[in-house]
Structure prediction request, 429 residues.
Amino acid sequence: MPFEKRGNAGKGAQTRQQKTIDPFERYDKLREKGLWLNIPGPADTIDQDKHGVRSALADVGIGYIGWTHNIFVNNQLPNAARSTIANQLYMGQNPTFASANFMIVTYDLSRFGIADGQIVVGAEQQYWTWDRPGPDRVGINTLAYYQTFFERTVELKLGYLRNQNEFTGTLFGGITGSNMSALFQAGMSTNAAPTPAVNLKYNIDDRLYNKVSVQRSISPDGAFAHITENPTGLNWSTANAGILLVEEAGYKSKAAAGVPDTWLRAGVGLNSSRYTNLADPKQQRESGNNFHYIAADRQLWQSDALGSPSRGIYGGFSIMLAPPVLNRIGQYYELRLYAKGPFDSRPSDLIAFVASNTSWSKFAVDAALTKGRLAHRDTTAITGTYTAHLAPGIYAGVGLSYIHNPTSITHTPQTEHALNLLVSTLVFF
Prediction:
């Protein structure tokens, strides 16, 4: 009898413990691995596990996440110089709409004894009313294999990768992001332009790491030229593209009670692609392009250390450099201040303030001036946004961005200033 009582007590405790287990925890190993990008899990989707579809797929090792990100930008200044779509010079000069839609499917290989093994297949579709940042496409987003070695000390990921989600870390708060154009122009692959790559990460301890990549560069003529030539993303290479080597070293500590969230990282890229020399565009293309960056984000204050330690106020900066003789953007500087869960009644909203300065290539600017054009040497932007988490899987954002010289290098007297209204929606399923 005493034994039976102990057994019943244990059974009751076990039942209480089971009630506290997160029902979505079983899906964690099915989320895409190897990214710094914290894509929400099934608990933060609109469908969660309706009709048991996600559970049935998980039972056979399959996970999925999809999302649609839609953005509207429009200059609010009364004297804004409108143009035809064909002659538009910057986002918001005309009312501009963009939509990017993703679907990522994973297959768990750990069920076959491969440590953290995973196959990832993803597709992306994008549409722009102004195609210069685009253009429109339907194609792969990723096609990857991932596994770990030596008790997760080493992580390997290879395939068609989008390294914008593997390096640098430019989304803060998981929603709002900074500008990576200085790295894209120097060859880093993107969501719309994945390229063959092998990434290897060495976790020195649970905070320090070093990560390297051997990646096929995107087109040296830019993302627009790359996507135009290779819209599906399946081509092995594009014209004049070579190999991009990337290395990033960093320190990353997640928020805990009394321990602020901290992420410090610095990286370098070397590219063998053949670029146009902006000092003398008529001469033969040359290789040797590169970039450098350093970035930091630090939690300055925890507003709910015991409940949700990630809530609070953060500060950060980014510096990105590239040789101006081969790149239109020579320097990019950014300061940011943001708050996660700014109000107790809105614990998963985000407020962000970002100031940035883009320094254009002196060679490209001088070339424009010699042709008698109005040209500027830098672009400065100050942006404030509020992103609301409206329901599981549903986010909406609104903001204003003042931009001095919103165009790239050349401008007209009517396009020196912009005050863009920013409206966005982000839905996960």
